[in-house]
C-alpha cells in the first residue's frame, strides 16, 4: 500500500501517525487519572490496567499485522523491543522528578507485584523459544499459559491494591495516591470513559498505519525485521508511554507513571499471544531468531533491575537519579549497539 509512494510522503505519513498516537495519549493520561479518582480504582491500578492497555493498542496492531503477513521476527521484536524501550522511559522520567528517586517516591505494593508478574510472563516465551517446536491449530501451548497467567495476575494485582499485606515505609519523600480534588469521587466516570475509548480507537488506527510503513521499510531498504521492529516501530508505538509517564510525573501522579509503564509492559506480553494466533505457519516462538531472543532477555533484565530499585527505594544516586536508572540506560544502550552492529 505504501511501497508505491515516494519516500518523503511515506515519512510524512509515518510522522503524522506517530503524532496522532502521542497527542491522543496525552489526553488519555489526564482521563485515566480522572477515571482513577472517580472510580476509586487508585493510580497504580488505573495506570496498569486502563492506561497501560490503552497506550499499548497501537503496538498490538503492529505485531498482529506483521504476524498475519508471515513476518514472525517483526512481530516479536516489536513486542519485546517495546517492553525494553518503555522500561527505559522510567529511567528518563526519574531525571525529571526533582524530589527523591522516582522508584522511592512511588512506593506501591501493586507496582511491585506487577513487576514480578511481568518477569514471570517474560519467562514463558523463553521456554517456548528454547523448547520443542509444538503447536495446536498453529498456536503454541505457552501462548495459552501466558494469557491465563495474565488474567490471573490482573486479579491478584487488584487484590494487592485493595488489601495489601504490607505497606512501604513512610518517608518525607513518599508520595501518596490521593485525588487532586475530593469532589471528583462524587462525579460519574461515564463521559471521560467514552472519550477515552474514542482516543484508544484512534491510537489503534494509527498503529495500523505504522505497521504498514514499517513493513515497507523492510522491503524498500532491505533492513532486518528485528531492527525495524525493535528500534523503529517499537519505539514509535511506545512514545505514548513516554509522554504519559512525563505528564503523570509532572502532575505528581507517580504511582500512575510507574504503574502505567509496568502495566503496559505486562499487557505487551499479550502481543506475543495475539501474534501467535495471527501467525499461521506454526508456532511464532520457533520462527524467530537469536536477535529477537536477545531483546526478550534485555526486557527481562531491565524489569528485574527496575524491581530491585522499587524494593531498595534509594533516595538519591549519581546525577540525581537512582543507580537502577543508570543501569537500565546502560543495558538498553548495549542492546541497541548489539542490534546495530550485528
Automatic annotation (TrEMBL):
Gene3D superfamilies: NCX, central ion-binding region. InterPro entries: K/Na/Ca-exchanger, NaCa_Exmemb, NCX_ion-bd_dom_sf. It holds the Pfam family Na_Ca_ex. Residues 167-187 are annotated as: Disordered. Residues 10-150, 193-338 form the Sodium/calcium exchanger membrane region domain. The chain crosses the membrane at residues 6-26, 46-68, 74-97, 109-128, 134-152, 193-211, 217-240, 252-273, 293-312, 321-341. It is found in: Membrane. GO terms for molecular function: calcium channel activity; calcium, potassium:sodium antiporter activity. GO terms for biological process: intracellular calcium ion homeostasis. It comes from the Bacteria. It is a multi-pass membrane protein. GO terms for cellular component: plasma membrane. The keyword Transport does not apply. Keywords: Membrane, Transmembrane, Transmembrane helix. PANTHER family: INNER MEMBRANE PROTEIN YRBG (PTHR10846:SF8), SODIUM/POTASSIUM/CALCIUM EXCHANGER (PTHR10846). This is Cation:H+ antiporter. It comes from Sagittula marina.
